[in-house]
Write a structure and sequence with these properties.
Layout (H helix, E strand, L loop, with lengths): L1 H32 L6 E12 L5 E6 L6 E2 L4 E6 L1 H26 L3 H33 L5 H30 L3 H26 L2 E3 L4 E6 L6 E2 L6 E16 L11 E6 L5 E12 L19 E8 L11 E4 L3
Antiparallel strand pairs: 1-8, 1-12, 2-4, 2-7, 3-6, 4-5, 6-8, 8-11, 9-10, 9-12, 10-11
Length: about 325
């Protein structure tokens, strides 16, 4: 009787063990086909600004450090360029010369020059008058046969030359009184304006030797340091605008339910003690081909694309910084 009881207990134990194994296998299969939903994870990013020079120059001073908050208009970097200083001196000298030439043209001849021109004109006129009288006297004597034809012709030629000289001297006097022609004034003014433009261009380059912060921001990374040569367009440092932040999520299109422009996303920020934050989607764009997910069953599946979704905080979040993670509960 005892033997029968022991056999029954053993069979019952084996049955329970087998049932437990079957239940464990069934539970495992159920978990395999019903995986636990994982939260959607994104990363905080912010707008960055590269501070770069317009011209190649050597860094003289760097007044900020990484992580420092700077106000708008704060001096960040000063550059040193002997070439700009030389160009500024050359442009200034060219402008002085052009301005002097313009003033000379607009002012006309000096009073002394006008008086000299008038004296030369009067002298030439007197010489022409004398040559005219001399010619008339000799011509009268020639007609009476008292002087030769040669002497008469010489007197006539001297008169004509003296007359042309008087006309030329009178023209020079008139030009000295009237000053430069309008075209000369316009040309001199144009040259002066061109020289002033050259000075303004070099002044602009000189102003760019001092780099200032375009907005209130935080220094993210310093690339070059004092003494190093900064090439035109190459960033010396980068700023990050802590007021312009967003979260980037990479979402497969088979998880895209409810994702649309303007839709809210309620997430938590672990770095801020799991602080709840509401975000609003404002950008949806497909990722590159490298981010395409391939279907497991090629015969009946399809390529699953991944989209980059950007969401911005509905309200400013104190302490939210680039690089922090944001978790959104499974939907």
């Amino acid at each position: 009787m005892t033997t029968n009881r022991n056999g029954t207990a053993a069979r019952a134990a084996r049955a329970l063990i087998l049932l437990g194994v079957l239940l464990f296998i069934g539970w495992g299969l159920w978990l395999a086909y019903h995986p636990a939903a994982v939260p959607l994870q994104g990363q905080v990013e912010a707008r960055t600004i590269n501070i770069a020079p317009k011209i190649s120059a050597r860094i003289a001073t760097l007044t900020v450090r990484e992580g420092q908050a700077v106000p708008a208009g704060a001096v960040l970097v000063t550059l040193d360029s002997p070439e700009v200083r030389a160009r500024l001196a050359q442009a200034g000298a060219a402008q002085d010369a052009a301005d002097a030439k313009r003033d000379l043209v607009e002012g006309g001849a000096r009073d002394e020059d006008v008086r000299v021109a008038k004296a030369m004109s009067d002298k030439a006129a007197a010489a022409a008058d004398l040559a005219d009288k001399t010619y008339r006297r000799l011509n009268a004597l020639y007609k009476e046969g008292l002087v030769s034809l040669q002497r008469n012709d010489e007197a006539q030629t001297n008169y004509e030359v003296a007359l042309e000289t008087a006309l030329a001297a009178k023209a020079q006097y008139d030009a000295a009184r009237s000053g430069a022609r309008p075209q000369e004034r316009l040309a001199a003014g144009a040259v002066a304006r061109q020289a002033a433009g050259g000075v303004a261009e070099v002044d602009a380059a000189a102003i760019d030797l001092i780099l200032k912060s375009p907005l209130a921001a935080e220094v993210d990374k310093v690339v070059l340091h004092p003494g190093e040569l900064a090439s035109a367009g190459f960033p010396i440092l980068t700023l990050v605008d802590m007021t312009d932040v967003w979260v980037v999520f990479n979402i497969r299109e088979d998880d895209f339910a409810g994702i649309k422009i303007g839709a809210p996303l309620d997430g938590t920020v672990p770095a801020l003690g799991n602080k709840p934050v509401r975000f609003v989607i404002d950008t949806i764009s497909p990722r590159g081909d490298y981010a395409t997910w391939r279907a497991t069953r090629q015969s009946s599946g399809y390529d699953v694309r991944t989209f980059e979704v950007r969401a911005r905080p509905q309200a400013p979040v104190e302490g939210l910084r680039p690089g922090m993670s944001v978790l959104v509960a499974p939907r």
